[in-house]
Design goal:
Layout (H helix, E strand, L loop, with lengths): L1 H9 L1 H8 L1 E6 L5 E8 L5 E5 L8 E4 L3 E6 L4 H5 L9 E6 L6 E4 L3 H19 L3 H16 L6 E3 H10 L6 H11 L6 E3 H11 L3 H10 L5 E3 H10 L7 H12 L3 H5 L2 E3 H9 L8 H4 L12 E6 L15 H9 L4 E7 L7 E2 L9 E2 H11 L8 E7 L3 H15 L26 E5 L16 E3 L1 H4 L14 H4 L2 E3 L2 H4 L5 E3 L5 H6 L5 E6 H21 L2 E4 L13 H4 L5 E4 L6 H10 L7 E3 L25 E11 L14 E8 L6 E4 L11 E10 L6 E8 L7 E9 L6 E8 L5 E15 L2
Parallel strand pairs: 12-23, 13-16, 16-17, 17-20, 20-21, 21-22, 22-23
Antiparallel strand pairs: 1-2, 1-7, 2-3, 3-4, 5-6, 6-7, 8-9, 10-11, 12-24, 13-14, 14-15, 18-19, 25-28, 25-32, 26-27, 26-29, 29-30, 31-32
Helix pairs in contact: 2-4, 5-8, 7-8, 10-11, 11-13, 15-16, 16-17
Length: 750
């Protein structure tokens, strides 16, 4: 990887970054402080400190940066736009939920050097292959541990570094490898020798054993042997011969082996650690589903209180929260509107101390970011607390800002009998709100401009804890609706739910109801299969209880089990529920739409989540997971000398009968290469709905286990055989090179 070094040094922008710059870090109009920034020698770490902060400094990796925005492209930058011209300003946007870094340079040239330089480094980091990434990870550690910066480490320093890296190993073994790597016998290792030392340290016996099972000479896998492995272990059937050839081309580092069409142990390990060797079937990561079915036939990634970055009582309302949700593939956002003091509608969590943002700024943000990660339609769920005048202002903002993007009439001018498809609505923004009359009544002037508030209140849609418990007479008050706003509602008219019988006989396909989590759960329990049938034809939205003032989430699986499409979650709150949402929508190109199983798309479906065995075509599966080992788990506790005691738990989420979990024993003091070889067995009654979540925890006998990492995916996306699970942080971002190595088999339950 010398290329990294030379590539970095030769670029003028990167040279300037390495020399360092004083930039202003801006947090608000009143908080602007100078910090010295520079790029370290590894070409990946950006270091910064205040000039007077003595020894204190901060660093972050270019790998953590998702994008660089130029000019006034964040709320903070817009607030200081008068003071600093756009050509001096730029914003670093990070992966996950980490806040932006807003910076102001002294000259346009310096700003450009950092903007272009960071973009080049991000591109470089994204295009590294597995081996380069692994080597880079090791180099980063070496840089961190090389305290006196002489580029060398003696055995004592190496031992300390191994501890930092979560490696506990016996001293004789470590010394033996150290001596082998120290070719010059100088008693210390330079960085390249350390990379070699580390490679010897990470040679994996459990991968070697699998390799030995199929290799005739124990040195190489011939093309035929690799084919046999792919067919027998990886479940690849007919494609195995063609695939074996591709894998050798792609992952075998030795040119002589490639010429002979064979694979060494190194190549085999590289394949197993790659995307193709991962547990998630790469073909299903792409957009592959039929997108021409009615909207009601899809699960739709949906956010609740989208404007909040924190909790619901004091949190920050922010445009960045919309950008982050849309970036995660969210296709239904919520806007909570109130009358503003100067005639401009504002958005915040009503009657609380959350900060306020302008409705029109949210719509401008939507225009810019709605279709960056997915072309499929975005639904704006409007919670409207405004008077008629400001409703009309909202309608005008929607029309003027969004223009052609806003859907304002049925697609072909026809009254629909079923909802249009995501494909037909590509690039469109749909408004979900109350409407005067229906699509059928071409509005005559006699139509009243009042709608009953009981629509929303009786389903608890006012999202306050008391709304669900109020007697009907107090909620049945009228509120006035602006004709202009009403006219913008086409396929998502909010209505009160009058029961499944009424929905079947009277309801229009473009009418939809919203339910609080408790109401939805009660309906699912009392009338599961009716709920499934209703959701085959109409959209339905569920949202967290108003009592969750900490912005916690409910389990979305309970709602998906009855076919609810718009299961709104607090995207700003990391944890199990968002892991499930990310797992469900990671498939199909992360486009925010996932086709429901066929038995949930049929208006005459007999499927009930409580009795999955009653449906025609019921095929339960037996899932067997051998948890073999884990690699390079991150340290949870930063205390000097603490090493993790990991265990792996597998959790199944699906219909009630499928909700279960099993775990391995824990292994003491080994986060580096723990080996379990334990098998966990499950029976899954509705595989088409199930999600499988792998969690690694640090065992603690006195208190709750600490979370180390997780990965969640749909049962239907699992690849069989020997697979690596690449772990994600609590925030859902990658934590390379941490992984779990498993062997998976699935069979029909007979």
């Amino acid at each position: 990887m010398e290329a990294e070094g030379s590539y970095v040094q030769d670029d003028p922008h990167v040279k300037l970054m390495m020399a360092g710059s004083t930039l202003r870090k801006v947090k608000s109009r009143s908080w602007k402080k100078q910090r010295h920034f520079r790029l370290l020698e590894d070409g990946l770490t950006i270091w910064y400190k205040s000039r007077w902060a003595g020894k204190g400094h901060s660093t972050f990796s270019v790998m953590d940066v998702e994008a660089v925005r130029e000019g006034h492209q964040s709320e903070v930058m817009l607030s200081i736009a008068e003071e600093f011209p756009a050509e001096l300003c730029f914003t670093l946007v990070f992966h996950g939920r980490q806040g932006n870094l807003d910076l102001v340079a002294d000259s346009p040239e310096e700003a450009q050097a950092w903007i272009q330089g960071v973009r080049k480094l991000i591109h470089k980091a994204q295009t590294m292959d597995e081996q380069e990434r692994q080597d880079q990870w090791v180099r980063d550690w070496f840089q961190k541990a090389d305290k006196n910066k002489d580029g060398k480490m003696n055995f004592k320093e190496v031992k300390k570094l191994l501890k930092m890296m979560n490696v506990e190993m016996n001293e004789d073994n470590a010394l033996h490898l150290f001596t082998m790597a120290d070719k010059c016998e100088s008693g210390s290792l330079e960085i390249e020798q350390f990379v070699h030392f580390y490679q010897m340290l990470t040679q994996r016996d459990e991968v070697w054993k699998v390799f030995q099972d199929y290799s005739g000479d124990g040195e190489r896998l011939t093309l035929e042997e690799l084919e046999t492995f792919l067919r027998l272990e990886q479940g690849e059937g007919d494609q195995s011969s063609q695939h074996a050839q591709q894998l050798i081309q792609r992952y075998e580092p030795s040119e002589s082996a490639v010429k002979e069409s064979s694979m060494s142990l190194e190549g085999f390990q590289m394949y197993l650690c790659s995307q193709e060797g991962s547990i998630f079937n790469p073909a299903l990561l792409e957009l592959h589903q039929d997108m021409n079915q009615p909207l009601s036939h899809y699960f739709i990634s949906s956010s609740h209180n989208t404007y909040l970055l924190e909790d619901q009582l004091r949190g920050l309302s922010s445009l960045e929260a919309y950008i982050q949700a849309l970036k995660r593939g969210c296709r239904c956002v919520e806007v909570d509107c109130w009358d503003g003091s100067d005639g401009e509608p504002i958005v915040y969590h009503g009657h609380t101390l959350t900060s306020k943002i302008l409705f029109r700024d949210i719509i401008s943000t939507l225009k810019e970011y709605a279709f960056k990660v997915s072309d499929f339609p975005v639904i704006v769920s409007l919670e409207n607390h405004c008077g008629v005048e400001q409703q009309t202002v909202m309608a005008r903002h929607l029309r003027h800002i969004l223009g052609e993007m806003l859907l304002t009439a049925p697609l072909d001018g026809q009254i629909p009998l079923m909802l249009p498809s995501p494909q037909e609505l590509r690039g469109k923004i749909l408004l979900k709100a109350k409407k005067l009359g229906g699509l059928e009544t071409h509005l005559d002037e006699t139509l009243t401009d009042e709608v009953s508030d009981e629509d929303e209140m009786a389903n608890g849609d006012a999202e306050s804890p008391s709304a669900e418990d109020l007697p009907a007479e107090t909620t049945n008050k009228k509120s006035k609706l602006s004709r202009e706003l009403s006219d913008l509602v086409v396929y998502c008219k909010s209505v009160h739910f009058h029961g499944f019988e009424h929905a079947r006989s009277q309801a229009k396909c473009y009418e939809m109801s919203s339910f609080s989590e408790s109401k939805a759960k009660k309906l699912a329990k009392d009338a599961g299969s009716e709920f499934v049938r209703c959701n085959a034809r109409q959209l339905c939205r569920t949202y967290p209880s108003g009592l969750r003032t900490d912005s916690s989430n409910y389990n979305p699986q309970d709602m998906w089990n009855v076919g609810c499409q718009i299961v709104a979650l607090n995207f700003q709150t990391a944890g199990l529920e968002m892991d499930l949402n990310d797992g469900r929508f990671r498939q199909n190109g992360c486009c925010g739409y996932v086709l429901k199983p066929d038995f949930m798309r049929d208006a005459d479906s007999r499927f009930s989540p409580d009795r999955p065995e009653d449906r025609p075509g019921y095929k339960p599966a037996r899932l067997s997971i051998q948890v073999i080992s884990a690699q390079q788990l991150p340290k949870v506790n930063q205390k000097e000398g603490s090493i993790v005691d990991p265990l792996v738990r597998v959790e199944i989420y699906g219909v009630p009968q499928d909700q279960t979990r099993e775990e391995t024993s824990h292994i003491n003091n080994n986060g580096f290469n723990p080996v379990w070889n334990e098998t966990l067995n499950f029976v899954v009654h509705s595989p088409e709905l199930a999600l499988v979540r792998f969690v690694v925890e640090d065992h603690d006998k006195t208190s709750r286990n600490d979370f180390i990492g997780q990965f969640t995916l749909p049962f239907t996306c699992i690849q069989l055989g020997y697979r690596h699970i690449h772990l994600l942080s609590k925030d859902g971002t990658a934590i390379p090179p941490s992984s779990v190595f498993v062997n998976i088999s699935v069979s029909e339950l007979t």
